[in-house]
Design a protein that fits this description.
The protein is an alpha/beta fold. The chain has two domains: 155 residues, HAD superfamily/HAD-like (Rossmann fold, 3-Layer(aba) Sandwich); 77 residues, Orthogonal Bundle (DNA polymerase, domain 1). It is built from eleven helices and six strands. A six-stranded parallel β-sheet has the order 3-2-1-4-5-6, sandwiched between helices. Helix 4 packs across helix 5. The protein is globular and about 55 Å long.
Length: 239
Amino acid sequence: MALRDYDVLSFDCYGTLIDWESGLYAAFAPLLSRAGVSLTRDAVLEVFAQHESAQQAATPDMLYSDLLGEVHGQLAEVWGVARNRNEDARFGNSIGDWPAFPDTAAALQYLKQHYRLIILSNVDRQSFSASNARLGVTFDAIYTAQDIGSYKPDRRNFIYLIDRLAEQGIRQDRLLHVAQSLFHDHVTANALGLASAWIDRRGDAGGSGATAPVTTAVRYDYRFPTLGAFADAHRTGSG
């Protein structure tokens, strides 16, 4: 199918629309300084990814802001310093400070003219609302881990999305899922038969950054370096 053949786009937010790696790394600054950590940015993010994915699997009903705080405390111990509960809480509440990618708002505003736009995010509603103003559009629906009771890549999150659309008479073959994370999004989406577009924000950077790596082959239907490139492909009919 061509991009213009879909009716609905569902988006991962953090990593796809919001530059969560820059936001996370900036929020880690007090702890990195206190612990004297000399790791590279990517190495810090990779340690975070290991602990975040494990915590999400262990506590699927924990609010994401609280989960971030817990992971922050775990990393303090990993890096040899005591947990600081106030510092943990500030880290957990930093989501609203994370910047949008420069192309995000304009691309969403264009795509809003052609599709229904839905968020399928691993954060909680309050945290997402803190980011929403940076995105420049009103979404047709917002589905969060808080609503669903589990974190992607759990199948329940995608089944929840498919079921909500079915209630509105929208078949899943009219939906394209748009995401950066192969681990959180593409593996499960495609296992359930959803078409997907990979927004490969890391490009030539290598590694998986703040996202847990995948160890199996991953299929996706489209690949773009940015959301702006996705919008351009729709505009020109080249996708």
